[in-house]
User: Fold these one by one.
Assistant:
Number 1:
Amino acid sequence: MYILISTGDKAARIASKLPDCIIVDRNPDSAKKLAEKGFEVLNEDASNPEVLARFDTESKMILADEDEFNVKVAKVAKLLGFEVFAVAENEERCWIYESEGISKICGSVESLISTIFEKNRYFEIKVGEEMDGMTLKEYDAGEDCMVISVFRDGKVLQPFPELELKAGDTLGLVCGEHVRLTKNPFDNILLLKSEEMSEREIREAKMVAERFEASLIVFEKVGDAYACVLEGRSDSVSLEEAVKILKKSDEFDLIATTLKEKNEDVLKLLVSNFPTLVLSGRGDYRKILALVNNSNPDSIINIAKAFSRFFGRVKVLLLDEEQIKHFSKFTETDLEVEVSTGNPMVDAVREFKSGYDLAILSLTNDAGNIDRDILWKIILDKETSVLVVE
Amino acid sequence: MSEAEQFTTIALISVIAFISPIIAEKIRVPAVVLEITLGMVFGVSFLNVIYSSGWLSFLSLFGLIFLMFLAGLEIDAETVLRSGHLKKVVVFFALSLSLSAAFTILAGLSLFYAIILTNVAVGVVVSVLREIGIEKEDFGQLNIVAALVSDFSTMFLLSIYFLTGYLQIAFAFAIILVFLAAYRFGKLVIWYFPEFISKWFSDEPSEIGVRGSLAIMILFVGLSSFLGVEAILGAFLAGVLLSITFRGGKKLYDKLYGMGFGFFIPIFFIKTGSELNIAQAGVVGLGLILLLLAVSFVVKAIPSLIFVPNFGLRRAVSMGFLQSTKLSLTIAGVAIGVTSGVISEPEAAALVTFTIVSCLLSPTLFRLLYPRYLPKTR
């Protein structure tokens, strides 16, 4: 179990990523709002030892309030023997935490989640009386977790949405960043809008944002710089600076833009920080193709799974027979998987040219044998939008 | 020679080609070594029952062309370009070639020997590394890249070596221009006609891929011959063209390897062996063989010292031994050298014997020297 000492939107963001979490919010208004959103909330002052003493010390404590308050709570929590994770409000003041002996200091919510879950982590939860009769579909494992097995009476059941849970069942969950990516990958989408961008391309970006229920933020290119509102102030920054600020702010999950010509440096800059959607003005993604052209295909598979949840069937073309070992990752989603049996590059081009609205591929391109020039022809194709991952 | 005698010779060669890999596997030597040795046994050196004929010469020449074509097909440009060792490997090759050239000049031999001494048998290098299980390690990859670079460069130098006059050199560059144009064209064809190209790699009975590949090979060989350039350059470039354009395609490559190593290439090796007169090599030949063996180790072991900072002294020297392994391309070079009059028959016999001994000795020395129980990289 996780005890989250936080308030407002930040508390909601963190709690939504944790499978079993109680929020201790000292602000009555915020606590009320969080409770209305369905979170388990306790409106108390966590710096009061009596409040923390109510919890099992096996629980993990996450401090994500103001730095001064966090440190105050940390002192109490350490005395009581809790394992403490802290999200520093101001990274420059991390020394305060260090001086209190808190080893897990995380500068952002995302790094907190990866620290907690160490990428992917498996754990089990006992089904209590209150969950008896609930279907798996109704069970909310949190954004970062998914049920991969259900243990009942000494047997392992394969999970499916309509499976009815019984008190006494044990749920096997896998949690991690990868799971979150497949469930709800995009909260905020940034549209890098250039002067040449057509209405159709802008509409496509809006369509994607709507489908994923994500916010669409626009940076408009004026001359060589991007006019944007960042950290509460209007500014005009270069692409490199914009990407740096966005990365630091931890808010964005996807960049949508257009590319009129091959520009390896720009695309590498964007893709190394965020998945990048190269728009072509498609109204919908009825046909989606994932070309698995990297040796570590998790990112492509996760995004393909996410798109299959929001847009329907996705065809996944494995360019290397070795990639079949990732096949188990496809079982629960609407993916059609095919392995290239001839020449992977030729098969990829043939499949791509058979007409898709969206193609997903990797810029690393270290599996299969797609020639760099051919890869760029695919990325710059006017008929198909391309989502490029690192 | 009667038709029956011609068929008898072809039948005998086919039987030798069939049994060679079976015996080679038992006694753990490369099949090529046995093909050449059995060729010697049945050829002019001993039994003298392999008769020359137009048929045999044609099949053998086609085997040589196929060998060069497959050597080109084996060039993995991606592996070479992605390697973090490429710059050092180029220095290694340049040093090796310079030392070989210095030796040949000092010994009063033709530069042909320098090319032969710098060459390396990529296939044997990869097999030995696989056998020890280090082909994917940094040291293994370094050896593969070094072998590929040496193989490609010596193959190219060998083709150029036999050119005579400015016109031929100009023609050789014309072929390279055709090669570059064909590469660009190939990529366009893949992009615009993927459906058609995918048939090259399918299992359709018409075997479009095999036919297309052979057509490309023969077109390049024909172009080379037409321009008066050595046919092996055309065959080699055709192989490289397919390799870098399609960048893989196991099924098709397997079929081409099957055709080449299953029939034509063994004929070339057996015929080459049959035409060597061991007796002609004599005592002088023995001296040349020993000298070449010693020099072939030195010209690889000294340059390999540049890798001492990366892998330590013992590993670096062991690399020198492995890189001194000779086989198919050396034999091909010898065959062309004899035909063009660059080397004499006794020299050819000595060179072939040197190649066989090198192919057996170098990997053995590498295995003895390679420090298996030391840390993998330093």
Note: Chain A touches chain B through 15 residues (CB under 8 Å).
Number 2:
Amino acid sequence: MKKILAVASGGGHWTELMRLREVFNGHDVVFVGVKPFYRSDVDPHRFYRVLDVSRLYNRISIPLLIGKLLFILIKERPAIVITTGALPGMLALLLGKMLGTRTVWIDSIANVEEMSLSGRMAKKFADLWLTQWPHLADADGPTYLGSIL
Amino acid sequence: MKVFVTVGSMLPFDRLVCAMDAWAKEHPEAQVHAQIGETSLRPSNMEYYAMISPPDYRDHIAACDVVVSHAGIGTILAAMEYNKPLVMVPRQPELYEVTNNHQFATAKWLEDRPGIHIIYSDDELAEAISKSIGSDGGSIIETGSRDKLIDALRQFISS
């Protein structure tokens, strides 16, 4: 059994993570989401709420978000951090990597034509760097191992 | 007739909210519920909420005859799950409605799927809604690649 931190922003990012929850069966999973009401989706697992930020939304809160993510990572000490994006998930991978965890980026299936900006940034610190579209995968680029559909 | 409008949780999408409020005024027979995000708009012809919890969200989708939304994956999957016809307006980055072009990419990917009407201008809204009402929704896309992804992730975790 491994401890896994599973991180997703709201809307589709969260829905995509929920469609992958069988991945965590038999492991100790802790969820991180951006809305308090997502807690009920993952009950009885532990759930932390972090601030929602993006390039156009609430950027000023990025330092606070980083602080909270560090707090969660240090408290929970996961072996693996896995995210379906976006910016909060990317920061969780970066901080996780700095603390020695293994990291997985799953780019949203919405990114049909190119990897998301957060996804491209995550390349440097994702042990598994995934796209959900075979046509976006290549030797230097992201890997395709399936999708949420 | 019940219409559920949903624009997601991050940036506002006032263009669609205004257009749907105007549509609701023209169609007093319709019951319109709208999730409008954090915006200063106060629609006067439909019930509205900034945010809706996942269980309430599913209830709204299940109860409506048509979903009108931005081109967000969460909404698309929910509409398909409940076989509801979907009228979709992609958010435009030029109008600061979204950070990049991915909603257009999503729209292009889904444009030929039954049950999904994609429109690019608010003028097409009324026609798209009346075409969608009573039509079948799309069903969830099952490509079999989900099991593959789950297996691959489980293998990575255990390795």
Note: The beta strands of chain B are 2-6, 31-35, 47-49, 66-70, 86-89, 116-118.
Number 3:
Amino acid sequence: MNQELPAKSIQELSPLLRDKQISPVELANAVLTKAESNNEQVNAYIEIDREKAIQEAARAESEIMNGDYRGPLHGIPMALKDILYFKGERVTLGSKIHQDFVPDYDATVVSKLKQEGVVFTGKLNMHEYAWGATTTNPHFGACHNPWDLTKIPGGSSGGSGAAVAADMTIASLGTDTGGSIRIPASACGIIGLKPTHGRISKYGCFPLSWSLDHIGPMTKTVYDAALLLETLSGYDPQDPTSVNTPSKNFTSLLSENLNGTVIGINEEYFFKNVDKKVEDTVRGAIHVLERLGARIETVKLPALQFSEFAELVTITSEASAIHHDNLVKQPANFGDDVRFLLEFGELISSVDYLKAQQIRRQLDNDFAKVFEGIDVLITPTLPFLPNNIGESTVSINGKQLSFLDEVIRFTGPGNLTGLPAISIPCGIQDGLPVGLQIMGPAFKEENVLNVAYALEKTNPLKGRKPALSGAIPL
Amino acid sequence: MTEHILKTLKDKGLTVPEHHIGLLTAQWEAFQQMKKNLDQANGAAYDIGLKHVPGGDQS
């Protein structure tokens, strides 16, 4: 039983904990043992804190035994991306410059998880300052994809993606500025949900780009993503981008019934220059959804042709503003790739920045108009399969193209518009998972969750998991 | 172009490692290509919607 526990979802574990069939200490021990064992190969954790985790698990156990059960997250072991503030604990941001940074307050999301009785097992690897999508971290070592250790896990929340996929945590949180939740979710074959901008507070998360940053769940199942979303949602006056809109009981809204659901497909942007293996897999999943009752409609989104400009200008400008002082005073302490991007951001003009913001308004309008006629839009999450660690190019239909140019092409529009988007695995090619992205109207996360839920029920990975997790190897 | 890039960064107090110079020039040229069709964007019609809250966020 113990060895099987780390592979289970929150939904499976919660009743076992509530009904005292397993203890939080037993569960934490099993997850910590798996994390310690797999971390030698995967390097998903920057720090595993066994002693603290066992203490927290013992407290949860005592509370549950005394009848003080807090809810479905009580006693669940989780590790989070090392960019979220924990009061009095070292938070590195995956950097050398902040390697000894100790915040004096909890991030709002951390505070909410503490209130729910989550047991924290450690801090997860990430791309330095979240400014990149490989998680080849120069200070804490490269994180490896559990499906193929020679490949990247994606990023910037690569440690979260790898840890969830390899059963080194039951669930996690990531941050997403250009795709940093959805990209590792796609590369590692898990669920990654970027909610609507303003739905989950960013207070206590070190920024990469104020107007593009999001926090969201990275989980084994759609149900778990819905559960974490409803737990973490809510207005927070301490985050100036927080939106005062009612939260929803997303788990109770889950439905696999797709009758009447209209799925939009945009051929011009989201299916252009996609590796054929990825495209075939995603189109195959769309046909499955059609057979389940959904109707497919082709849609036009003209402003998407400018979205790469808008994403590049916005993220580089805002990131360079945030890191400007350190770039002047201690440039050698940045990793080489992050230093390069920060230098580039210093070259962008204010006129370009403002033009990019105008394009965001165009995109907002285009998407709003399209969502009047469809419930969700489906795209590939990535146009390629995960590349080798250390490579700066990706292969798309035999052509070697710049990783930097290609990696956020399909996820960036979700950040520019702030619309909710989820990545869910839809198949396997060359032994690596393929992610499918589902985007929805603002504050209608239930739309994307329901289509993902229906697809999940078809078991698109056929039960396969990374060999590392102890399941049957491919 | 390279001189312009280096001068802009130097004026901001930044030092650029030798191996970044070619990469920055290439990235800048790619960026200029990306901007070529921006005149079709008709962006001037859009208010960027930047909000400033008088009295601060907590007001």
Note: Chain B is about 45% helix and 0% strand.
Number 4:
Amino acid sequence: MKSNRISERGEKGLRFTSYAVTILFLLFGTLPLVWLCLTSIMDNESIQSATPKFIPDVPHTITVTLDFTGADSGDETFYKKEAMEAIWFPWASLIRNNIGEIIVNGTRDGQQLFRAKATSAQFYVGQMSIVPTRVVNDQVMKLKLPTIAERKLSDFEWYGPASKPAKATAPSSDHEVAKLYRDFFVSHDVLAGKITSVGHSRNKLRLFDSFASLQHIALGKAGDLGFYRYFINSGMVTFTVIIWQLVFAGIGSYALSQLIRSSRLRFFLLMFFLATIMIPGVSILIPQYILIKNLHLSDSLWAIILPHFAWGFVIFLFKGFFDQLPKELLQAARIDGAGELRTFLKIVVPMSIPVFTIVAVMTFVPVWNEFMWPYIVTKSPEHWTFPVAMNDMQQTTNRNTIVRPNLISASGVLSLIPLLILFISTQRFVEKGINFTGIKG
Amino acid sequence: MKRYKGSTHKRAALLTMSLAFGLLTACGSGNGNDPAAESAATPAGNTPAAENTAEPSKEAAIVEITVWDKPAPDAATKAVAEELQAKFDAAYPNIKVIHEDETQTPEKFLAAVAGGEQPDVFRPSFPKMQEYVQAGIVADITDLINASPDKDRFIDGAFNMATRDGKIYGVPLSMYSTGVYYNKKLFETAGITSLPATWDEFAATAKTVQEKNPGTIGFDILGMDWGDWHFEYYVWQAGGDLTELQPDGTVKLNFTSEATVTALQYYKDLKWTHKVVQSNVLQSFEENNKDFYSGKSAMILGASDAYNTFVGQGMDPSVIGFMPYPVGPAGVGPSQVGGSFWAISPSATPEKRQAAFDYIMFMSSKEAFETRLQFNKDNGLGVNPFTVVKDVDTSNYVEGMPADFLSAIRKAAETQQLEYYLKSSLSPYVVKPIQKVLLDQNADPLTELKAAEQLAQKEVIDKYNTDILSQSGK
Amino acid sequence: MKLESSPPLKALPAPRTRFRIRWTPVLFLLPSIIVFIVFKYYLIFSAVQISLFNYDIVNPPGRFVGLENYFVFLQTSTFWLALKNTFIIFLLSVALTFWVPIVQAIFLSEIRKANGVYRVLYQIPSILPVVAGALLWKWMYNPDSGLFNYLLGKIGLGPYGWLNDINMTKFAIVLPGFFASGGIGVLLYYAAIKSIPAELFESAKIDGCGPWRRIRSLVLPNIRFVILIQFISFMSGALLAFDNIFILTKGGPADASLVVSLLIQRSAFEQSNFGMSAALSFFMFLVIALLTVIQFKLQKEEN
């Protein structure tokens, strides 16, 4: 670089300090996020343990062979009930042992009858409906079968008798969790079949079941799109607000900055817009609700979108940048006979890409993360935005779920993804703007 | 987010009454099992009521009411709720019920009220009921109740928390009772054979358990912002109460009474002298529960429905013990009873009120209660031995709950007391001295309470009493 | 407003240029003005109105009480305590967090290698929703199992009460902001620094004034405008902070972190006293507006 020829006093020290400070801040800043990501794939016991753990424990897979040779035979439902009992009842007792999945292979006379499986994503979503207490008997499980099927809380593949030879049973494992599993059925005699082996392994995929759980929960509420519905809603809200800000706040600020000649009026208008950021949000909740209701917009995405249109800070920011535009350039365009709109579109906008990008990013974050207002104004889950849905997942009241810290973390991680994508994709434009010397901060 | 859960646990209060025994599970704390969560989500269109519109009855027009009681799609009791709902629709073809999600936060509820969209029927907890009566958000339904043949089915005192100046504002929905949970296993390792019956024994027991089980805590105290909820029990045990309702309707503060000071001193001793409580005294109610079900703390105060939470989190039912409160200097240890009511919107028209009341009474019928109990029994749902009506014997439906747990709950519920009056407004003032003594070893209970009382008197009570007197003067 | 008071122009066959100059700004500004009137001024007007009543939400507006709500809260010591706490937390935030992105940007501008990567990384802490961030920190502060105390323990300090210490609570509330304050602010400052003409830097170097003086006398004055923008939004953000305090402490312990925005929430939604809540909010609005005007005045004098 050119400037290197003139070396400064203390330049080295400055460079060293720069790196040190930057890296230190980045470390501190990202530490909470690393923790968030880690906890999203940890089991509850590790998260809550007295000495924090940093390495997630890979969940256990229990593979059970249930042999019906010699037992009374029944129809598919009978075996289904048996399989579900072998999965759900012991799991409820072993809930604190970080089980990732239980697989049950049903055999009879050397033939495989069925294969059933539940993952922790399914288990934790259904736990409070299927095994809320320790009542262990056939009757209870029979009543639960429709719920399991309807909410897809377990997989069950039926092969039927004499259609698939059973694989050789794996040897029983001595792992502690496998032992606990066997012990459960020693004290609870509910199965008609006989447990011939209990295998143990670990499956890394099950680490990510907290994310899968979220989708399961959402499917029940927001319709077929499940979790994506919330993303789409949040996206639509955020997108609309950003468009409005870029177009109307942009053009308004331009007028404010360049077209109004009276400096008094300019100051008055600037204050008119800016003063609104000093209104405590919580204080206008009730009037805003009444207003939206009178506009017949309650429980719609518009109810969330519209109030965001008025954001004084954006206008303030825009105006600040437009004020720095070289007046001569605009004057030249006008002399050429260009209308104001044309001047704005052809001259101002291309020069102001960085401001527009910054406004878009700045709008994105608070709108995407807003919770209280969307929560109050929406009733139907199909209109929920992401934070509202996140809140719902953490509610324990009024429904039979228990808050799981890893679910909270997982939803936190998910909500970060769009923002990350945004930052990485807009970086280029911001940088471009930075290189543009026509604008001074 | 997490924070809004708070209010549901705050519901607490008392009814003096004989307790019938009933279904297992969450009454008070609003888990989906409470009987109320069960009236259901049949979409308004496809019910018998809809058919009936095609074939209109000549006299009565269709009355449409909104009820905030839709069960969550994943609620365990969704099926029975919808079943009862369909039955109601069949029995009352002229009433069309629209079910909406029950809200959990005051923000959402009050916004709906302000927007003129208050549900015709909603279900406030005990303390919220008092607040809403004061704010005029619930309808006076005295006449409807007095005219109802069902009135006497409710247990004695059940209407107390919804009654003011002789007017009744709500129909009892659910109830719970409180006591001390203990971990039998930890007690056993510590060699404790008899349960503590007094304050001194309680502190000694906590100390022993803590010493004999390294890494555990003797007792999880509640010092968070609902700290007054558990603290009031200690005031009762010391023979007093935090507030006193005067005959003229005004309220007198008793923060500096001997009982209150003694109770706070005991809190201070538990923390600083006996050192038997957790280090994070401000931790949330959920974190206290977590300590208990994960075997980290040996004792915790809790409502009868907490049993389900503990078992649901993998605690072995045979380890869960329950006992009445150890008695304080006054020799008493009453249990606190909380719960919730059905309430009707004051802006509902008389027709809607009647329809709403019919709906509530249908859901409070013997058959409705028994249907729900049977469902819970068949489905292995849990434990709430309390019911608000006399004609339902819940003991027929209890299953899978240790017998000694049940009898301990019964015993704990023998003597009971209402939560202190005006709790929802005074809470922050009471919590302040509690947190002070739990966090500052040098804080003096009397001094702190005196300051709190002065503040509460000036900022809440004076205005309240003036309002009350001016209202009654009219 | 002046511009709108010239309707005859439309009727007259005015010269084109005049017409354009007068009406274009109105058209350009109209959409913004409308949404601000409807969604801000109308609402704050309603709130002020509510503050004059003993507001009855079922049959609004209830009994007119004039300024009584204002007098009532001005006489309670809880309010003054909350106001004091609000300002302490605000000052702590200024001391702990406001300057952080400025420093980050200044040092970032001295780094040439992989500069873009650092800028992206700086965004990450700030995109965590406030609510999620606060929950996370509550976790980390936990004296028993919190990560923060664990790390302090490793280097021989702690465990420390943080939120459990009446004297420490306010600091513990502000501290997370120190770590997460990067964000868009860094980009704004960075952009501003980068747009300082290179010649100025060159001549500063030739003058041999050294990097530290260069930062003080060249960089800082040139980004003053961005600092002002940021400070104004920072100020209302810090004085009205709610979510993080609500989650971390709910105003406790023993009211040590009770701030006015919590009182606003409490009086409305815990005590159903909407009149009082509106009065408190309008008061806060006036306080912040006053501070902002002072800011502008100071800025003007400096210029």
Note: Residues 1-58 of chain B have pLDDT under 50 and may be disordered.
